[in-house]
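Researcher: Here's the sequence for the chain we discussed earlier.
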Amino acid sequence: MTSNFLSPLDIAITLIYALAIFSLAQFVSNRSTNVRESPKGYFFAGNQLPWWAIGASLIAANISAEQIIGMSGSGFRIGLAVASYEWMSAATLLLVGKFVLPVFFSTGSMTMPGFLARRFGPSVRYLMAIFWLGQYILINLTAILWLGGTAVTTVTGMDPMLALILLGCFALAYQFSGGLKAVALTDVVQVSLLTLGGLIILAVTLSQIGGQTSPSGIANGFRVLMTRFPDHFHMILPKTSPHYKDLPGIAVLVGGMWIMNLSYWGFNQYIIQRALAGKSLPEAQKGIAFAAYLKLLMPVIVVLPGMAALVLAPDITRSDQAYPTMMTLLPPGCLGLVFAALAAAIVASSASKINSIATIFTMDIVKPALPALSDQTLVSIGRIASVGALAIAILVAKPLLGNFDQVFQFGQSLTGFFAPGIVVIFALGMCWKRCTTAGAFSAIATGFIMSCVFYGAAHLHQHPEIEDAFPAWIIAHIPDMPFLNRVGWVFWISLLTCIGVSLMTREPSSEAVVDLTRIDFRTTRAFNIAAAGVLIVLTIIYVVLW
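Model: Thanks. This is the structure I predict for it:
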């Protein structure tokens, strides 16, 4: 490893981490040889995950290079307001644990396309399975690998494509044998290292700003940052902010961000798969609550280091360089730990995406088409799918993402084209017996079409030189709205469309609908207390930093 910034000590720490996490994954895999050769064992850990593994794995699947590099870059450019994606996710997790998980557990649904097949039939299942495969490979996995490769290149001087390939292959290798159980149990170590690394880089950067390496230096550095950049410490941006289009004021609390978060945390295979692999519903709910508390911590270790770059590296040309640049300021040893933590986040999240891609491809496309295949064959097909998904992601990462400044915001905006329709079909599929297959298709189609219309109108507003080529009424009646507001409007339009079409088509059979009266939505006292604590912390944050 030819290094620009890594000392021999840093390289040794990184290699020890890689060897340790790979060995742990193989140890976990070898302890469950019989289980891992069945689809339930390989893809769902034999439904034996404890709450602490569920919570840690949820965060490890979520916090990746996309979040660390991307959100730090947005913190550098926008400020602490981008932390709403993390803090509002904590509240969303509580809703998922309280209302969504009981439905999936009671219906026996193990995949998101599987629930849609039960509720709306195989046509919706295949459509959404193909959509999710495309999203996971072409958006999520590519973003993780590209941003991860960028960070490795900044610190080591390694060729970015070589870094990307090494990260992807390591993520594939360490979960290839043991499946979800190997991923989830090693995620406990990954998240611990991620948290430690994030706190180290935060402490070192704030100490440099504060002028001394001590707790008082860290506190002074934070005060200096707040004093010099007060506009970066507001959670709710005014309309006069140049970044209002990214985070449109109060909409982050009552608007489209809820739709984005529900789509991601409630109806997203590679996230919800961890909870569905739990020992029981109460165990999964405890894991959800644990993840919510970890979410409260995440902005501290992924957003604030990017904001520290405002003082320590104000001349960087791309905001996504903020976090890697801060890493280069760390002393030997510390840099090795932080670099290993970043690698842990990249590897853990990549492995999670790869495993869920294999799950959907095998369980929702191959198995329904070829039901006679043996369990061992299905697991083998899942492993082949893992290799294929990684190869595609590596090939398309640079062409798709190489020219974007804020990859995190780009990914959020692109996902917003589909999130409204997804939330509509799951919410109505769970809560309204009258919702039909035709209504579900109309919601998906309407959501995508209206997102394109609003996006196109925004493009016209931003490029007045081409306005004359389009009817004047488009410019006059379709506003140039922020994408989170667009998500909110598209959700309501899709919802009304789905209701209207459902009422005009034949009522679904009683076997297909979800009978909510037979589902117990009560939660344990421990979950309720934990949920109250999360909501109190969130209230304090937004009151103080409004």
